[in-house]
């Protein structure tokens, strides 16, 4: 009984959503321009990769 109510609620929630469907429409960023996406990914992942090296350099140069 409870399972049926949950299933009815989830299907009605999906049906009443007003978002477009399809690949890339549920992401918080655009995937239309592949070069902009590449640049954003390089900045995002590159900053996380470079952070430890910057911290170590700062600690070495600190007096």
Automatic annotation (TrEMBL):
Subcellular location: Mitochondrion inner membrane
Gene3D superfamilies: Cytochrome c oxidase subunit VIIc
CDD domains listed in its UniProt record: Cyt_c_Oxidase_VIIc
Chief location of this protein within or outside the cell: mitochondrion
Protein origin, superkingdom: Eukaryota
Pathway assigned in UniProt: Energy metabolism; oxidative phosphorylation
Membrane topology designation: Single-pass membrane protein
Record keywords: Membrane, Mitochondrion, Mitochondrion inner membrane, Transit peptide, Transmembrane, Transmembrane helix
Cellular component GO terms, alphabetical: mitochondrial inner membrane; respiratory chain complex IV
InterPro entries in alphabetical order: COX7C/Cox8, COX7C/Cox8_sf
Single GO biological process annotation from the record: mitochondrial electron transport, cytochrome c to oxygen
Region (Disordered): 1-24
Transmembrane segments: 35-56
Summary of subunit composition and partner proteins: Component of the cytochrome c oxidase (complex IV, CIV), a multisubunit enzyme composed of 14 subunits. The complex is composed of a catalytic core of 3 subunits, encoded in the mitochondrial DNA, and 11 supernumerary subunits, which are encoded in the nuclear genome.
Main function: Component of the cytochrome c oxidase, the last enzyme in the mitochondrial electron transport chain which drives oxidative phosphorylation. The respiratory chain contains 3 multisubunit complexes succinate dehydrogenase (complex II, CII), ubiquinol-cytochrome c oxidoreductase (cytochrome b-c1 complex, complex III, CIII) and cytochrome c oxidase (complex IV, CIV), that cooperate to transfer electrons derived from NADH and succinate to molecular oxygen, creating an electrochemical gradient over the inner membrane that drives transmembrane transport and the ATP synthase.
Family the entry assigns: Belongs to the cytochrome c oxidase VIIc family.
Protein name: Cytochrome c oxidase subunit 7C, mitochondrial
Species annotation: Gymnodraco acuticeps
The organism's taxonomic lineage, starting at the top: Eukaryota, Metazoa, Chordata, Craniata, Vertebrata
């Amino acid at each position: 009984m409870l399972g049926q109510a949950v299933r009815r609620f989830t299907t009605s929630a999906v049906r009443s959503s007003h978002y477009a469907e399809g690949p890339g429409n549920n992401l918080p960023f655009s995937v239309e321009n592949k070069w902009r996406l590449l640049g954003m990914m390089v900045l995002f992942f590159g900053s996380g990769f470079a952070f430890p090296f910057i911290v170590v350099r700062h600690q070495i140069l600190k007096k």
